[in-house]
Amino acid sequence: MVNILGISGSLRAASFNTSLLRAAQAAAGEGVRIEAATLHGIPLYDGDLEQREGMPQAVREMKQLVLANDGLLLVTPEYNNGIPGVFKNAVDWLSRKTADLPPLFADRPVAVIGASPGGFGTVMAQNQWLPVLRTLGARHWSGGRLMVSRAQSVFGPDGALQDDAVRRQLAEFVQGFASFVAGGKRDA
Ligand code: FNR
Question: Is residue 188 pLDDT above 50, yes or no?
């Protein structure tokens, strides 16, 4: 079994990216399990807070979720042609070391997808994750790309994926990433 943690980078209840993450869970074939997480409860990074109180509980819980899974799927919105602040902020917190937990990103398989109502499907935000992931020492999977554009017609009003072509692309992406993750597992 390949276990992947997917994080949606949007806090919106009706988020297209959270819908995309749910669709990825549904598209995961046999032998692949995707757990979904959101960024609710993660405070703004504050070095004084960190020094005074250590890692906030919400960050600690997210760290444990990442560690409990084999791979990490970032489902990123795009704001002003870049990574949304809330998502980068969460990854900045997660990158901080604690004495009792191992480093999170070093050698961790990571893939990036995203959805946008615009025509370019988060290509700029996805590209901006690359130097971040390189800095963190993550193993970025570049074997597939998924940029969901015109998201308002891809997802129905209830957030369900209603585009069969995107469903196929998503299933292919998840399978490719899962194989990459499995290839790096000692017990694979
Ligand atoms: C956006 N949006 C947006 N979309 C895009 O494709 N490129 C962009 O540069 C931007 N810029 C941008 C800035 C800000 C501040 C906001 C709030 C929005 C639109 C964005 O893709 C849209 O709101 C999505 O619905 C956000 O993702 P979720 O919340 O649906 O997952």
Answer: no
